[in-house]
Amino acid sequence: MNEISNQQQSIELLQQLGLKEYEARCFVALARLPKGTAKDISETSEVPRTRVYDAIRVLETKGLVEIQHSNPQQFRAVPIEEAAETLRQEYESRTDTLVETIADLEQGQTTSDEEISHEVWALSGVTSVANRTQQLIDAADKEIVLIIGHEDVITDELVAHLQAALDSGLNVLVGTATKQLHTKITETLPEAEVFVSELEWLHSSPLDLDDETTISRLLLVDQNTILVSSIHETETGGIDTEKAVFGRGFDNGIVVIARRLMATGLRPTDDPATTTRSADPEEVGEHHD
Question: If both were cysteines, with which of 12, 182, 227, 263 could 219 make a disulfide (CB 3.0 to 4.6 Å apart)?
Answer without folding.
Answer: 227
